Amino acid sequence: MYSNGIITSRDSWVYNYSERNLIQKMKGMVDFYNQEVTRFEHDYIKGQHQNLEDFLNRDSSKISWGVNLKNNLAKFKLQRFNQKAVCQSLYRPFTKQWLYADKNFNHSLYSMPNIFPSSLAENIVICVTGRGETVGFSTLISNKLPNYHLIATGQCFPLYLYEANTTPTQTNPQGGLFDEPNAPTTTGYTRRDAITDAGLKHFTDFYQDQSISKEDLFYYIYGLLHSIEYKTKYADNLTKELPRIPRVKKLADFWAFSQAGRKLAELHINYETVKPYPLSFEVALDTLSNTDFYVKQMKFAKKGDKSTVIYNSKITIKNIPVAAFDYVVNGKPALEWVMERQAVTTHKDSGIVNDANDWAIETMNNPRYPLELFLRVITVSLETMEIVNGLPKLEIE
């Protein structure tokens, strides 16, 4: 089993850097939707039933309609705010946000309920570029719910799969992430490996090495998908179909790819805790107040020069190693994803503000987070390319 990332069709409503703001606006949407159900049912009973599209109140500051909500409205189905649906998601490369993951307010959850069924369920997924994309093939691993565009219309392959137990247990007292609001809170899950026994046997028989585990194979795949030689050799195939995973000729090379994959996964999952790249600043950062780290939109100081980034009016990041921009994921350098997403935006139709500083202050308890994230992703980028450049030559059976 594999799955697209979550597609919402109303990202500005169901995603936000602030958990508090997300809850507030989703409660408001749920209340407004229920008012519309009551109004529609009242008209129906009175014989004033009209075309649903003509009936809808399209005030974009109160609701974002979609197929799911329209269908539920037509059935007079009320909704309840679901606190269990509030979770963290990897929205774009190296960018987390809070998500309201609810099937009624998301366009599709795809198979994610079997991959991340609850906030306590541990899992990791290898996400790869979807078929037919022209941004160039790339891959990124995540231990959070991935968005559909984390990797362009990507497909995500998990390490584990979860199945809901038919008998209530106490293994997950918070219940499932995708449960209905009134679902029992003692639902448990059984975890199994996503890689099949036959898939593992395909490799252990070839290498005559029974010590290879499914986890070793999982990281072998992640390492292999980073191979420049692999991506170049199969570039045409990778625009048309999902990646095929060959067996490299030598057992030593299998282990080299697997170990590299583990190192890359460690970097890419734990990017928020890697050591920031050491850069000096014209102003001593420890003399600045918390408000001095507020960021609205980073930008390059000069066109064609990536060595200097203006963080805000008080902080300029200089002497950035240009090699850090060599690590490209989902069509652009990882550092440029940070520059684009650590910002303050206002959705035109709804007026909803999404402020990356809210994640820094409320979730990370660190107003310096956006700046430190940029420095950490420099480290991630340089170390990623060092690992990639050290991968074995691609020799396939």
Coarse structural class: alpha+beta
Strand count: 17
Low-confidence stretches: 169-174
Mean pLDDT over the full residue set: 93
Secondary structure: elements and pairs:
Blueprint: E1 3-4, H1 11-14, E2 15-16, H2 19-45, H3 52-55, H4 67-74, E3 86-92, E4 95-100, E5 125-128, E6 139-142, E7 145-146, E8 155-158, E9 160-164, E10 189-193, H5 197-207, H6 214-224, H7 228-233, H8 235-238, H9 251-269, E11 299-302, E12 305-310, E13 316-317, E14 328-329, E15 332-333, H10 334-341, E16 344-346, E17 353-355, H11 356-363, H12 369-389
Parallel strand pairs: 3-7
Antiparallel strand pairs: 1-8, 2-4, 3-4, 5-6, 5-8, 9-10, 11-12, 12-13, 14-15, 16-17
Helix pairs in contact: 6-9, 9-12, 10-12
Defining traits:
four-stranded mixed beta sheet, globular, four-stranded antiparallel beta sheet, alpha+beta, 397 residues, 16% strand
Description:
This protein has about 400 residues and is α+β, with helices and mostly antiparallel strands. It is about 35% helix and about 15% strand. The protein has helices spanning about 10-15, 20-45, 50-55, 65-75, 195-205, 215-225, 230-235, 235-240, 250-270, 335-340, 355-365, 370-390, and strands spanning about 5, 15, 85-90, 95-100, 125-130, 140, 145, 155-160, 160-165, 190-195, 300, 305-310, 315, 330, 330-335, 345, 355.
